[in-house]
Design a protein that fits this description.
single chain; 412 residues; Cytidine Deaminase, domain 2; Dihydrofolate Reductase, subunit A; nine-stranded mixed beta sheet; binds NADP nicotinamide-adenine-dinucleotide phosphate
Length: 412
Amino acid sequence: MVDLGATSLMRRAMELAELGRGRTSPNPVVGALVTQDGNVIAEGHHAVLGGLHAERVALESAGTAAYGSTLISTLEPCRSFGRTPPCTDAIIDAGVSKVIVGSIDPNPKVNGQSVRYLRERGIQVEIGTLASEVAEQNEAYFKHISSGLPFVYLKAAMSMDGKLSLRRGIPTRLTGQDIKAEMHVMRSSTDAILVGVETILSDNPRLSARIEGSVARQPARVILDSRCRIPMNSAVVATAEDTLTIVATTDQAAPERIQELSDRGVVVMVLDRGANGVDLKHLLTELGNKSISSLIVEGGPSVHTSFIRQGLADKFVLLCAPYLIGGDEAPNMIGGESLSRLDEAERLRFTNSRIVGADLLVEAYPAAYDPEMSEWNKLTEELALRNQDVGDIISPETTVEIQLTTTDSERD
Ligand SMILES: NC(=O)c1ccc[n+]([C@@H]2O[C@H](COP(=O)([O-])OP(=O)(O)OC[C@H]3O[C@@H](n4cnc5c(N)ncnc54)[C@H](OP(=O)(O)O)[C@@H]3O)[C@@H](O)[C@H]2O)c1
């Protein structure tokens, strides 16, 4: 049975969580409410990395009125000391009677243990309200904390027939201002943007986030460049002292080029060689180790092809401009060898589409990925079913089975 009260309160908590978007990484965005008899008496969100967690903000705002209340939190509260003290202590100290949680926190330091801890202390805990939506809201955090790798968005602006530009080498602005503005917001809430060196050579982009009327948080820039061909006067190298700029290269690069880039403030990662240049799995591991939990791959076609053929894109953001360009020379969104079987193609599962200005924005996941089958979703469901008796569910075996990796970027 769906409790509409809890669902709408959780939606409000999710809205609050969004207020922290772009400022909490590699932590999740979290929202919380303190309620008495179904009425909201205080609200909170995790505003910035290192700042108070949403639950503490809401409880501090409620003060003594939190006694006997129901706390709603999008994500399971933390239980250990990190950058801030445990939220479970704040919940117990405030005299909260009941906690409604959206999803478990897959951080190995939490991972269902806070639910058990609170229940053992006589606090009723309900879990699973809008669990999949909460997990999607924090998809980058969930992937990074459970695998150590960044969540990869593959974003491409193309004509309706999949062309990235007119004839190769002719810079082509396909999409309109409205969708561009949205994409700059997306850039500012993502940890890094990646392009291939040919895009730098042909377009010399800044790869910055520009939001009218506000100072945008700047993502790191990552350039795939196995021989360090990137020009020293390119826009990204020229601004490397201000914004983290990573050139991912291989042992094919001349040591003096690497030195020259390092002298200009560029972080040069010398990685294994892979198909078509830099080994992408090695790169993603190193970016994850640097607490980069989300990455937008912005092309061009050679880079798209590598990520798609290796199954490394977690989500697709496709911006389709209202043109049919055609032409054999115009670069396609994805190139590479032609396939002979459809089951070898990347199959997508569309999740969202909308018209923005004159363009069409389509969001999709690889069809093979089913969030309903994810380990955290299964654990959340188990906890929801066994609301009263969780001791035998959250066993050490369960935690091991989930194979979560502790990284520097875990939620404090
Ligand atoms: N419409 C859009 O959304 C969009 C976005 C971006 C770019 N573009 C257009 O795309 C064009 C450039 O695309 P492109 O395909 O020629 O080049 P690209 O994808 O920008 O860069 C490809 C180069 O990256 C390097 N690289 C290193 N490791 C790689 C790996 N694992 N996989 C793939 N590449 C790797 C290779 O050079 P080394 O061998 O030297 O390492 C490779 O030649 C430009 O015209 C640009 O305007 C369009």
